[in-house]
Write a structure and sequence with these properties.
Order of helices and strands: HHHHH
Number of strands: 0
Strand content: under 5%
Distance between the termini: 103 Å
Radius of gyration: 44 Å
C-alpha cells in the first residue's frame, strides 16, 4: 500500500486500538523509507561533488604550477636585473649601522610606598577619644 492509502485507512480508527497502532507503525515505516532514500541520494550527490572539486583543484594546481619557471635553465633564459658592482661593493664595505640599543633601568616597586609609611605624620588637633 502507498502512504496515502495507509493514511486514509488510519483516519477513521480510534486511538490506542490494535488496528490503529499497526497501521500507524506501517505508515511510519513507509515515511522513514522515503526519508532514507532522499538522504541517500543527497549523500551520493555530495560525494560526487567532493570528488569533482578535488579533481578541479588538482588540475588547476597542476596547470598553474607548470606555467611557473622551475629549473635553472628556465631562470637563465630570462634577463636578470642587477645592480652595478660598484654600488654592491660599497654597500658591503660600508654597512649602515643599526640603531643604538637603549638600556632602561628596571622599576623599583614599593619603594615609594615604604617611604610614605615610614614618615611620621604631624599630630592632629583632634582630641583623643575617651
Amino acid at each position: 500500500m502507498s502512504v496515502l492509502q495507509l493514511a486514509e485507512l488510519l483516519v477513521p480508527l480510534q486511538k490506542d486500538t490494535v488496528a490503529y497502532i499497526v497501521l500507524s507503525h506501517e505508515l511510519n515505516l513507509k515515511i522513514a523509507k522515503c526519508q532514507a532514500k532522499a538522504t541517500s541520494q543527497a549523500g551520493w550527490i555530495s560525494a560526487a561533488a567532493t570528488i569533482i572539486g578535488a579533481f578541479v583543484t588538482f588540475a588547476l594546481g597542476y596547470f598553474i604550477g607548470t606555467s611557473q619557471p622551475k629549473g635553472p635553465s628556465e631562470l637563465a633564459s630570462k634577463p636578470a636585473v642587477t645592480a652595478p658592482t660598484s654600488q654592491l661593493n660599497t654597500a658591503i664595505a660600508n654597512p649602515t649601522p643599526l640603531a643604538p640599543v637603549v638600556q632602561i633601568e628596571p622599576l623599583k616597586l614599593g619603594s615609594s610606598v615604604d617611604n610614605n609609611a615610614k614618615k611620621e605624620r604631624p599630630p592632629s588637633n583632634a582630641s583623643p577619644r575617651p
